[in-house]
Amino acid sequence: MSHSSPNSSQTSPDEDQERKETSKQDAPVNGAGGDSQHFFLLACLFEGGLVFLAAALGWIVGFSPVESFDWSWSAAAWGVAAVGPLLVLMFLLDKLPWQPFRRLRDVVDRVIRPTMARLGVVEFALISLFAGIGEETLFRGLVQGWLAGEIDGPAAPWIALLAASLLFGAMHPITRTYALLCTIMGVYFGLLWMWTGNLLAPIIAHALYDFVALVYIMRFTTGDATLAEEESTDAR
What is the pTM of this model? Predict the structure, then answer.
């Protein structure tokens, strides 16, 4: 604990506390610009690189991951419509007080929110677009599509759907709850692809959902302070 000298100006405990809180709030913002842009570039490169990974793996196994891709207004409409249930689920889960979801929100507050603090709507849109194209090309276009053709029997499409969805969830290990949610979303995107027969539908659904989710999290939520307060109380 620091002490003021007799000649120094006196400050009240409340002023000292306010100065400390202000310092804590300003600290992550000062470096957020560079971190955000760095994250943006890495995210786009990683997600976009999944297309090339899918193409390379497809070349190895002799299967095109985009053979079911075709521009179709009906498939595009299905992709847009499919976002609705996902958004309803997201809003509901965001309000649930269940501990695993609160833990997930805490990770978002501590890691995702500061990292993306200086990104704008255009950056959110580009990250989402690359994610939709890259991840759907790899997991639905290649993994699910290839496995469905390699496995014998009437259960082949469903085994391929489950395998691709589990792999999709495993590639999102932010928390166990998030990995489980991504597995369920993988099933949803996989069913959408099977229903439409066109990779365009899950690409649009995935990209549009990611975009709305990012805008919602970064612009319309303020974080879960309750969990932090409870953990602080428990630590005492």
Answer: 0.80
